[in-house]
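Thread: GTP cyclohydrolase 1, structure

OP (GT): Posting the sequence first so everyone is looking at the same thing. Length is 211 residues per the record. Can we get the structure tokens written out before standup tomorrow? I want them in the notebook alongside the other entries.
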Amino acid sequence: MDALTRERTLIGSDDTGLDLEPAQRPTRDEAMAAVRTLLAWAGDNPDREGLLDTPQRVVDAYGEWFAGYHGDPAKELSRTFEDVQGYDDMVMLRGIDVQSHCEHHMAPFLGKAWVAYMPTGKVVGLSKLARLVEIFAKRLQTQETMTMQVADAIEDHLSAAGVAVLIDAEHQCMSTRGVHHHDVSTITTQFRGVFKTDKVLQQRFMDLVRK
């Protein structure tokens, strides 16, 4: 199963695992009308001065927060460099910002990602790895799914000998509602290839995460 198939299964499926057809995208005016409805439902008056421009601002913000639906992970990882003088050790990016929204409450979860891979004759530009994380983060997500998607994309498109991904984030659906537990972070990991089979290499990755 390729990365695109996995992505459809993980993001665009119902509880039966069957792929769903993409929803028809509403117009901008329809989206702003929906915001007005939510403002009224919350108990405020959408026509009061302070809220007149709120629907427009919310729609603009959603366009930025969920821009990842228009990103292409394969395209980001398509340009690679083979002139690396035989380099065959870990390539790692530490502390990549993660700004995402949970798919259950549409509440933000914020944190950091650490991403590493073992190249097999070619490497990708470092900014592309950060962009890859951003593409998947700027969608409605679960942290577990996003961690797997980042690992899948690198494994599939770079033919890496191994991939390691760790995400550490705080979920506002837990800190600002529900149980109201603050300063609790969630850590998810994925180890593929040599990072899964070589415990020494896996420990090197974890040591660099903690550094």
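GT: Both are above now. Quick notes for whoever picks this up: The chain has two domains: 28-67, 72-210. The mean pLDDT is 89.
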